[in-house]
From TrEMBL:
Residues 3-56, 110-217 form the Beta-galactosidase jelly roll domain. The keyword Glycoprotein applies. Pfam families: BetaGal_ABD2. Its EC number is 3.2.1.23. Gene3D superfamilies: Galactose-binding domain-like. It comes from Streptomyces yanii. InterPro entries: BetaGal_jelly_roll_dom, Galactose-bd-like_sf, Glycoside_Hdrlase_35. This is beta-galactosidase. Keywords: Glycoprotein, Glycosidase, Hydrolase. It is an enzyme of class 3 (hydrolase). It catalyses: Hydrolysis of terminal non-reducing beta-D-galactose residues in beta-D-galactosides.
């Protein structure tokens, strides 16, 4: 079968059939061979496609590229029968569940819909690990809490660095959330950025900060070697703007409109 996805440059789409991973692709069309015995004549089959687009092209030319659609454009499935599609996007659609961070902060990953990127998410039952390599293709979530104690009367630029010695060979991407704020996306096989400056309003300069990573692997055994916070420079002075309002898991999913700073 042939899958056509519109992801923009560096986007990807991962394809499963009846729970078996068939592979991944970038923007455009790709054909997948269905393994023998994976489907049976006359019985339902479930095709699942995860599309990660990279947003619209910037509108700096008159070629119309900025108006191109994004998402799953076409699927050609051989054989006869009824085909029904279901689509899953961000919680609330045009009415985001999180009115503070807004419509464009979150996507449609299952973990985003479940609030795993938010402070106070119920992660106590998650397994503890020091490794960030996935044993199979797909999306895996990681979360940690970091206590900061940045010096007062200084302006410190804090960055999140992703380290990988694979030389861009490993195909995976990392969606970065800091206290629920979408801070950036690292794409290992594209690059070149491996260090992301965290806006000061996302951080609690003196206190606990929740960092969540959604790692989407196109291959088994890939992922960062390490992820760490780094000091990208500290200078005396500056204005302490404080932390943005950062409502947590219970506030966002409970439907309350947050007031003040979280």
């Amino acid at each position: 079968m042939t899958v056509t996805a519109r992801t923009g440059t560096a986007g990807d789409a991962l394809v499963w059939l009846n729970g078996t991973y068939l592979g991944a692709q970038g923007d455009g069309a790709a054909t997948y061979k269905v393994p023998a015995g994976l489907t049976e004549p006359g019985k339902p089959a479930v095709l699942a496609i995860l599309v990660r687009n990279m947003g619209q092209y910037e509108d700096w030319s008159a070629d119309g590229r900025s108006k191109g659609g994004r998402g799953l454009a076409d699927v050609a499935v051989p054989g006869a029968g009824t085909v029904q599609w279901r689509i899953q996007g961000a919680v609330g659609g045009p009415d985001p569940a999180d009115p503070v961070r807004g419509l464009y902060n979150n996507g449609g990953l299952y973990g985003e819909r479940k609030g795993w990127h938010l402070p106070g998410a119920p992660t106590a039952s998650w397994a503890t690990t020091t490794a960030l390599k996935s044993d199979r293709p797909g999306v895996r979530w990681y979360s940690t809490v970091v206590d900061l104690n940045l010096a007062r009367d200084t302006d410190t630029a804090v960055g999140l660095r992703i380290e990988d010695a694979s030389g861009r060979a490993a195909k995976y991407r990392v969606q970065i959330f800091v206290n629920g704020w979408n801070t950036g996306q690292y794409v290992n096989n594209v690059g070149p950025q491996d260090e992301f400056v965290i806006p000061s309003g996302f951080l609690k300069a003196r206190g606990a900060n929740t960092i969540a990573l959604a790692i989407t692997a196109e291959q088994p055994g890939v992922g960062p070697d390490a992820v760490r916070l780094v000091d990208r420079g500290t200078v005396l002075g500056g204005v302490d703007g404080g932390q943005n309002a950062s409502p947590g898991y219970h506030t966002v999913l409970g439907g309350e409109v947050p007031a003040g700073k979280g």
